[in-house]
Specification:
Helix content: 40-55%
Strand content: 5-15%
Largest sheet: 2 strands, parallel
Order of helices and strands: HEHEH
Radius of gyration: 13 Å
Strand order of the largest sheet: 1-2
Length: 82
């Protein structure tokens, strides 16, 4: 998963309130974020909490999967379970 610094996220959240954030990019794809469902769920949770602590008005979404195949939908279910 490509990352940035918490300081950069904080600066962006404070300077652009009420923004829409998408956490990650195709976390299920090896040449994109390439993380397990539990690892993505953890990253999403930590990032969600951090952004909301600096901008309660932020809207935050999960990353999309590559395509809605049964395997990829199972990945999303595993993220939700985690």
């Amino acid at each position: 998963m490509r990352s940035t610094t918490w300081e950069a996220i904080q600066e962006t959240a404070v300077s652009h309130p009420n923004s829409i954030w998408i956490i990650g990019n195709e976390p299920d794809v090896i040449w994109q974020d390439n993380v397990t469902a539990p690892a993505y769920a953890h990253c999403y949770h930590e990032t969600y909490q951090f952004i909301k602590s600096h901008d309660p008005t932020a809207q935050i979404a999960i990353a999309g999967v590559a395509e809605p195949t049964p395997l990829r939908l199972a990945y999303l279910d595993a993220v939700l379970d985690a």
